[in-house]
Design goal:
about 80 residues; mainly alpha
């Protein structure tokens, strides 16, 4: 990945870290918009993991499964209710 993106890799990883830190804080505080951000971030994670598998990175299956499990859990009625309160 570093070979592909070169010096922009650090900026990408910093951006991802900031998004995840924001998501963690907002989820801890149970902000309504955090639920939508969770679905977006982990949905993108599923797609990215499947892309990894398509280019030959077999460990992408594990990441895809974890990301998909988070999306499924976030979609349960109890979690939706918690964020709507």
């Amino acid at each position: 990945m570093v070979e592909r993106f070169g010096s922009a890799t650090w900026a990408f990883l910093l951006f991802v870290g900031l998004v995840l830190a924001t998501l963690a804080y907002a989820s801890w505080r149970v902000h309504t918009w955090a639920w939508h951000l969770t679905l977006l971030v982990y949905g993108v994670g599923v797609m990215g993991s499947l892309w990894q598998v398509s280019v030959g990175i077999e460990q992408g299956w594990v990441a895809a499964a974890v990301n998909a499990a988070i999306v499924v859990y976030a979609g349960t009625p109890a979690v939706k209710r918690a964020y709507r309160a």
